[in-house]
Amino acid sequence: MKNQMSRTLRFIRIFSLIILMTSPVVISSCYVDYGLATNNIPIVASFFNPGYNFNDVTKYYFLDTVVQINGANVTRVYDNTIKNTTINNLNALGWTRITDSSMARDPGVVIVGNVVTTTSYTVTENNGCWGGVWSYSSCYSYDTEYEYSTGTIGIVIVDVKVLNGESLPIQWIGLSNGVMSSGGNVSQKIIDSINKAFTQSTYL
Amino acid sequence: MKKISIIVFLIVSVICSEANAQKTGKGFYIGTFQYSTTFNIGRAHDYVSNVSFWGASFGIKKFISQSVTVGFNISHNVLSNKYDDGTTEVQNGLITGPQARYLNYTPMLFSIGYVFNKGYMVRVFPYIQANVGAYYIWERLQLGANFKSNNNLHFGAGPEAGIIFYIGKRFGINVNANYNYALGAGNPIVGRGDDNSFTFFNANVGISYINK
């Protein structure tokens, strides 16, 4: 009887120890998932070469074709919106547009172009936590597949006087990325996001 | 209010009961399971400013002398922030728009501590402790439909102070706080510098089991 009680107590101790040790692992399987709602977009990113002095720029040569990269096949309906909004922002910087490409190597001149591309995503969720207090709890396994395509608009600034060997480094790039099927006024979204790319780049 | 007063009275009564004294010393061990909250500090706070109320830790320590303990702790803390129109600085750039930031800490720490147990039967065990070991830190930055993740194992350390209130039957209530500094490892997911260190503070409450 005493031995049996001792064995039971030993089992309870070991069982408790296992529960305690695995608890952090179980809890770690839960995390807040803010989801991939299409209202979470677009985002606007801007990157620059810190070694380039944008204060020296006074003129720009604008490439009049929106280039589709990475095999994208995007409607041309918004090309004029993209180009006109970019030009408006460049002019607002106080830069003067030149149309003679032979002047692109002159001091203070940069070349500006627009690019667009698309990326298709497939996200499979097979575990997670949903609902409940603090959006945790109810951790379970399920299979849900999200399919969506994002479109990216890029505004690129290069300076042909600054070469890195054979390549032409980008001095500034503004990117707007969003889900293409999210609806709404697409033209206005394009205008707002290009404006934002310039607004957040105060060094231009 | 009356209900709370009764509960507090009962807890105090149990803690203060003479019958609930416990001896500790060389050969004893203390196992602890705790609910853990996290407060980011400094650079980590810039990344996720929300206080985390989601975390747990498990620890065990053994007395190697009358008052000195050595042990091991493992914890997990989950933090996150969502910004409807946030700004994230990255190397040579800026990203704005709706975004979410996630941060999970998993410290795995060895400890050496000192328990103020006076060498006889006591009901309250204050202790101080130094923790040192590895911090597994997972970061995720959601930018619209895009994700960027970072996993790194950091070396780190920090002090801890706490009190165990003995409640009888070899069990006690453990209240403690610990500071954590995880040294830089890998590249930062955000920010314009090279610093990828993390500093945070935990406030914990849990159950301790004391035995020999």
Question: Your description of this structure?
Answer:
- The complex is a heterodimer of chains A (204) and B (212).
- With 204 residues, chain A is an alpha/beta fold.
- Chain A has three helices and nine strands.
- In chain A, α2 runs parallel beside α3 (186-199).
- An eight-stranded antiparallel beta barrel of chain B has the order 1-2-3-4-5-6-7-8.
- Chain B is elongated, with a radius of gyration of 20 Å.
- The A-B interface holds A 16-17, 20-21, 23-25, 27-28, 30-32, 34, 36, 39-50, 121, 134, 136, 148, 150, 177-179, 196, 200-201 and B 31, 33, 53-58, 74-76, 78, 80, 82, 87, 90, 92-100, 102, 104, 106, 142-146, 209.
Brief overview:
The complex is a heterodimer of chains A (204) and B (212). With 204 residues, chain A is an alpha/beta fold. Chain A is built from 3 helices and 9 strands.
Oligomer: heterodimer
- Estimated radius of gyration of chain A: 27 Å
Report the order of strands and helices of chain A: HEEEHEEEEEEH
Please list the strands of the largest sheet of chain B in the order they lie side by side: 1-2-3-4-5-6-7-8
Overall residue-averaged pLDDT value of chain A: 75
Give the structural class of chain A.
alpha/beta
Instruction: Write down the overall geometry of chain B.
Output: elongated
Structural class of chain B: mainly beta
Which percent band covers the strand fraction of chain B? over 45%
Give the % helix of chain A: 25-40%
For the termini of chain B, the CA-CA separation is: 40 Å
How many strands, which pairing sense, and closed or not: the largest β-sheet of chain B?
8 strands, antiparallel, barrel
**pLDDT < 50 stretches of chain A:** 123-144
| Mean pLDDT over the residues of chain B | 85
Using CB atoms under 8 Å apart, which protein chain pair has the greatest interface?
Answer: A-B, 37 and 34 residues
Count of discrete alpha- or pi-helical segments spanning 4 or more residues of chain A: 3
Question: How far apart are the first and last residues' alpha carbons of chain A, in Å?
Answer: 85 Å
Shape of chain A: elongated
The whole-angstrom Rg of chain B is 20 Å
